[in-house]
Design a protein that fits this description.
seven-stranded parallel sheet, alpha/beta, 2 domains, Rossmann fold, 413 residues
Length: 413
């Protein structure tokens, strides 16, 4: 099985090279790994012991960020190495100030893993959520390096729990400790003899809480919502969401702040033309704040602002539920705002739990969306109670970072 795995890594790398001339993401994947181990050897000077964090992509990085920053703040005498598998993580965070070294992860061949260990000599290794790489985990295990995965979640459908999963289960035994999100994951692992497990929650809750604490005032938004008592904030929306949202905004006297997932000119123009009232783009309001006066729709046609916006609404809508799946619900929930989203949410544990607690509603069509919005806007006390349940859920789930730091503190002393 190890032979087949190693062969598959080489085949995968070959295929990436084949498609690279035609695919930007593949091109970045290959370019970022050219001479990578030599670059690492030149930059990692050994002046400080290294703790290694690995993230598959941007979402996992944001999940692990509270742990990285807590570790860096408490242990400045250690260097933090951050690696990414995907260009969507590395290219966005390659200049992240919280790590001393940031690289792509070299392809998981036996030779690369051995050379990596010789260069880095990690004192501890932490994998965020998943991205299990056999050769790296094997080398860490052979070198007796304390190795962890955190914010992980396991499901019966995964290969670890299948009749053919013996080789996959071997990887789990390489870990010193697995911090899982819930009791179900812990029980699943116990069923296959993996007992080096602790429930450590989901560090995304710590991350969104940190974002709330760091949020800065937004004068343009404050001017747009001034004296409005019915404000809807819609984040990470797609076409299926935007058609319903614009229709509601056209038919009701509300203020809507909408942050499309795609901020291309074509998509922003399409959203703009779908709304019949006065529509303002955030970029235009930056040049002249008075443009938001009298507007009922504000389009956020830039990135990096959304996590600061939900506090300005009485109600939040999270996009993606009419496509592959909903986006982040926790940023809105942290601000004590009830959440509404489309039908494809069942794979997202926090969305299910928000619904169970009466803090969120899933809708499947315009009629259901209108009923949910109408109810919350017409019943501010119900809206407030649902929002309080949302923020209480986030508060309850925080604390995973502290558990992981307690383990790391013992390792690096």
């Amino acid at each position: 099985m190890t032979f087949i795995y190693n062969l598959s890594i080489r085949v995968y790398t070959f295929l990436i090279r084949v498609v690279a001339p035609f695919n930007e993401k593949a091109r970045l994947w290959i370019r970022g790994r050219k001479g990578l181990l030599s670059q690492m050897a030149a930059k990692i000077d050994g002046s400080k012991p290294v703790v290694w964090f690995h993230s598959s992509s941007l979402g996992e990085f944001e999940q692990g960020r509270p742990v990285i920053e807590a570790f860096k703040a408490k242990h400045p005498d250690y260097a933090v190495l951050l690696t990414f598998f995907s260009p969507s993580g590395y290219e966005v965070r390659k200049n992240y100030a919280g790590a001393d070294y940031i690289f792509y992860l070299p392809a998981d061949t036996r030779r690369n893993a051995k050379r990596f260990m010789q260069i880095v000599k990690p004192k501890a290794a932490l994998f965020i959520k998943y991205d299990f790489w056999y050769n790296y985990l094997n080398q860490l295990h052979k070198a007796s390096v304390p190795t962890y995965v955190f914010s992980s979640i396991f499901r019966p459908q995964q290969a670890f729990f299948k009749w053919y999963g013996g080789w996959y289960r071997k990887m789990l035994k390489f870990f010193t400790l697995l911090f899982v999100q819930d009791e179900n994951s812990k029980q699943l692992l116990a069923g296959i003899g993996i007992n080096n497990v602790q429930i450590g929650g989901d560090t995304r809750f710590d991350r969104v809480y940190d974002l709330v604490q760091q949020a800065k005032p937004q004068p343009i938004i404050e001017r747009f919502v001034a004296d409005a008592d019915k404000v809807l904030v819609a984040g990470s929306t797609w076409v299926g969401d935007e058609e319903l949202l614009c229709r509601y905004a056209n038919e009701h006297n509300i203020k809507m702040i909408i942050a499309p997932h795609e901020t291309t000119e074509a998509n922003v123009s399409r959203v703009e033309s779908s709304c019949t009232g006065k529509v303002v783009r955030y970029s235009d309001a930056q040049a002249d704040e008075s443009k938001v006066d009298g507007a009922n729709v504000l389009i956020i046609n830039c990135i990096g602002l959304l996590s600061s916006l939900y506090r300005y609404g009485q109600l939040a809508y999270i996009g993606g539920g009419f496509g592959k799946g909903i986006h982040n619900t926790l940023e809105a929930a942290t601000y004590s705002v009830p959440v509404v989203f489309g039908p494809k949410y069942h794979k997202f544990r926090e969305a299910c739990q928000l619904i169970e607690r009466g803090a969120a509603i899933s809708i499947s069509d315009y009629e259901q969306l209108a009923r949910a919005f109408d109810h919350y806007f017409a019943n501010p006390d119900d809206c407030k109670r649902a929002g309080q349940k949302a923020s209480a859920y986030v508060d309850e789930m925080r604390g995973g970072t502290q558990l992981i730091m307690k383990e790391l503190d013992a390792v690096v002393k």
